[in-house]
Design brief:
Layout lengths: L3 E4 L17 E2 L1 H4 L7 H15 L2 E6 L4 H14 L4 E6 L3 H14 L6 H12 L3 E6 L12 H6 L6 E7 L3 E5 L15 E6 L5 H10 L5 E3 L6 H5 L4 E7 L3 H9 L4 E2 L6 E2 L45
Parallel strand pairs: 1-2, 1-3, 3-4, 8-9
Antiparallel strand pairs: 5-6, 5-10, 6-7, 8-10, 11-12
Helix pairs in contact: 2-3, 4-5
Length: 309
């Protein structure tokens, strides 16, 4: 069985694009309150996943209540298991759902659990996630100028906000010409409408970003809280091709964790959180042949983006 990808809510599970991509496990210990779902039940839930899959990569949004992360760490501690990776992410809800889907796609490939878990940080830098908002008056997750705050009180004002990989905010004019800086590689866009019309996203932003496909998704329940308004259309553009995702992860140097022995990419083990030793103390990595062509890689995909290591 492939490594299990677990999420903290059903809204983070996008439909599988093909019959080979497994679904994600929704952790009831994160969805339900401790009163309705005891620690013993949470332990049984996680133990069952480990028994069936060997390893579990649990995606937990950084915006989740502290109690959610505390419960996950408590389960890991009580089980005394080094087979559970708890990956926190700053991605907005729809972007996190896309990341979970990408990890689900890669879980059926020949990546080890350590590489798969640490790939979450790499892939996050290639997900362009944002929203069209009717107000930025209460938005605190993306830098907002005082002028934008003032404009958000004007009736009918709309703002396009990019949260990742680089924060950006623009005011959308009536003509709809303004656009956000987009990816320089092929993507597919998902959008999830809330209480705003989605025409600007589908008719202006998607063509400007040269998205190869646009599809509607259900708006995650957490989105209104994350963006501080229900007047929104959330969107996320990401690499849809599993062969490109595979090559992207394969092209990054792998190391062995000096603490738990698992493979990893980046500067920290996703399972035990041990950092890599300084470069001068690391052994030379074994040569691993790449089995797919690199011609379809996004620009500069042969190294981790700045801030991903």
């Amino acid at each position: 069985m492939p490594t299990a990808i677990a999420v903290t809510g059903p809204d983070l599970v996008l439909p599988s694009p093909d019959r080979h991509t497994p679904s994600a496990a929704v952790l009831q210990s994160a969805v339900r309150s401790p009163r309705s779902y005891s620690l013993d039940q949470a332990l049984t839930e996680m133990h069952t996943l480990i028994e069936h899959h060997g390893y579990v990569v649990a995606l937990c949004p950084a915006s989740a209540p502290a109690s959610v992360a505390q419960r996950l760490h408590a389960v890991r501690s009580v089980l005394e298991s080094d087979r559970i990776a708890i990956v926190r992410s700053d991605l907005p809800p729809l972007g996190l759902a896309v990341l979970a889907l990408q990890l689900r796609q890669l879980s059926v490939c020949d990546f080890s659990p350590g590489v798969l878990a640490s790939a979450a940080r790499l892939l996050s830098h290639y997900i362009y996630a944002g929203a069209l908002l009717g107000s930025v008056a209460r938005l605190d997750r993306v830098p907002v100028t005082l002028q934008s705050h003032a404009k958000s009180w004007v009736p009918g004002a709309q703002f396009a906000v990019l949260a990742t990989p680089r924060p950006e905010l623009i005011k959308v004019s009536g003509g709809g010409e303004a656009s956000l800086p987009g990816p320089g590689f092929g993507t597919r866009m998902l959008y999830a409408p809330g209480q705003l019309a989605s025409a600007w996203v589908t008719e202006t932003l998607a063509p400007a970003w040269h998205s190869t496909g646009v599809a509607e998704a259900r708006l995650p329940a957490e989105s209104a809280r994350w963006w501080a308004t229900g007047k929104l259309v959330e969107f996320a553009a990401a690499i849809p091709d599993i062969s490109v995702l595979y090559q992207l992860v394969s092209s990054v140097r792998r190391d062995d964790c000096h603490w738990c022995g698992l493979e990893l990419i980046g500067d920290r083990c996703a399972f035990c959180a041990a950092p890599l030793p300084p470069p001068s103390e690391r052994p030379a990595p074994p040569v691993r042949a790449l089995t797919r062509s690199a011609t379809a890689l996004p620009r500069a995909a042969t190294a981790l983006p700045r801030g991903a290591t």
